[in-house]
Design brief:
Order of helices and strands: HEEEEE
Number of strands: 5
Largest sheet: 5 strands, antiparallel
Strand order of the largest sheet: 1-2-3-4-5
Structural class: alpha+beta
Strand content: 35-45%
Length: 88
């Protein structure tokens, strides 16, 4: 995957993370015609951890030429400055 591939996936995730109320079950997509990579980001859940809003997100990324996508799942927690970090 290229840096641009990752940027497009993160942009899809940011759209979901900014939505209110949290769009649990909704997906966004990103693709990069230059590299052939494509994928989706799905919000799996919305919780609170130690008083901070957290979102469970699954990224499904398929670089060009791969038979199966890579599908990591992360919990992203909002920290004091408003940004999100991978929790625990």
């Amino acid at each position: 995957m290229t840096r641009e591939d990752g940027d497009r996936q993160r942009a899809a995730a940011r759209t979901l993370l900014k939505a209110s109320p949290p769009p649990v079950g909704r997906s966004g997509s990103g693709s990069n015609p230059a590299s052939g990579a494509h994928g989706t980001v799905t919000m799996l859940g919305a919780t609170e951890e130690r008083g901070a809003p957290c979102r469970q997100m699954r990224f499904s990324v398929a670089p060009r030429g791969t038979a199966r996508p890579v599908e990591p799942t992360f919990t992203l927690g909002r920290i004091r400055d408003g940004s999100r970090k991978i929790a625990g």
